[in-house]
Design brief:
By secondary structure, the protein is of the alpha/beta class. The chain is built from ten helices and nine strands. The chain folds into two domains: 150 residues, SPOUT methyltransferase, trefoil knot domain (Alpha/beta knot); 77 residues, Trp Operon Repressor, Chain A, CATH 1.10.1270. The structure holds ligand 9WO. The site of ligand 9WO has 15 residues, from strand 5.
Length: 261
């Protein structure tokens, strides 16, 4: 998998390969990251990459020509799509990133300041992606998020062969809760089922929790998805237990009130 990134801050973007899963994938040659600085494609003495916006207003806009030079240089080495990262783009999710991975590579275009001259975007950009509805200071952090998430999907990038399968969203659901030692943390105990070593029951508990949390926190994820019979059963069990706990809590709170009067 090859990632190319056009950015005024190459040292920032290169940090994504400095440690962790992405670092190991780069060391193993599973991914390659190349950064291209538009400043290297300027022709004037001051190496200008930005100028004032036509129509006035605050801030600066990235000029088309230096970016066009960087894009032409990337295209000599890579046939990948050019993707601009901005809040105006299509909202990305795990399936979209997985589909892009199948294309074999991506080139990310990172804007700074108030943005990029629209004519450069119209002439060159093949897709526009957004992480979500907020503004950050430039496209770099968004590119790093995409590179991290896509690298996790490259076969062999995660230690365990099936870890990517167990990630949140690999199945379109939220993750189940995780626990480690000690068994008792300030009076909060690890769920009994995880200590008993019955792996059929553990798997069922985890799936029940994943379905239940998705039902509680992200009903939109469940709406998009068909549950099989077993999953419907597990979710019903979660809901029954949830309602039961809620009723017992309400009853306990009421008797607390009586005690105080
Ligand atoms: C800057 C600005 C300043 C004053 C008034 C309005 C303004 N809008 C912007 C702006 O959106 N700047 C962008 C910064 C230009 C393109 C790159 N930047 C960016 C990308 N910010 N946030 C993203 C981004 C990318 C992907 N997903 C979420 C956010």
């Amino acid at each position: 998998m090859r990632f190319d990134v056009i950015t005024l801050f190459p040292q920032l973007v290169e940090q994504v390969t400095a440690s962790g899963v992405v670092g190991r994938a780069a060391d193993q040659g599973l991914i390659e990251l190349h950064c291209w600085n538009p400043r290297d494609y300027t022709r004037d003495r001051h190496r200008r990459v930005d100028d004032r916006p036509y129509g006035g207003g605050p801030g600066m806009v990235m000029m088309a020509e230096p970016l066009a030079g960087a894009i032409a240089a990337v295209r000599r080495q890579s046939a990948a799509r050019l993707i601009y990262l901005s809040p105006q783009g299509e909202r990305i999710d795990q399936p979209l990133l997985a589909a892009e991975l199948e294309r074999g590579g991506v080139t990310f275009l990172c804007g700074r300041y108030e943005g990029i001259d629209e004519r450069l975007l119209q002439a060159e950009v093949e897709a526009e992606w957004s992480l979500g509805d907020y503004v950050i200071s430039g496209g770099e952090l968004a590119a790093m998020v995409c590179i991290d998430a896509m690298t996790r999907l490259v076969p062999g990038a995660l230690g365990h062969a099936d870890s990517a399968q167990q990630d949140s969203f690999s199945d379109g659901l939220l993750d189940c809760p995780q626990y480690t030692r000690p068994e008792d943390y300030r009076g909060r105990r690890v769920p009994r089922v995880l200590l008993d070593g019955n792996h059929r029951e553990i798997d069922a508990w985890r799936e029940r929790q994943a379905l239940g949390r998705s039902w509680l926190r992200r009903p939109d994820l469940l709406a998009e998805r068909q549950l099989d019979q077993r999953q419907q059963q597990l979710l019903q069990e979660f809901i029954a237990e949830y309602e039961d706990t809620r009723q017992r809590r309400a009853a306990a709170a009421e008797s607390e009130q009586e005690d105080s009067t």
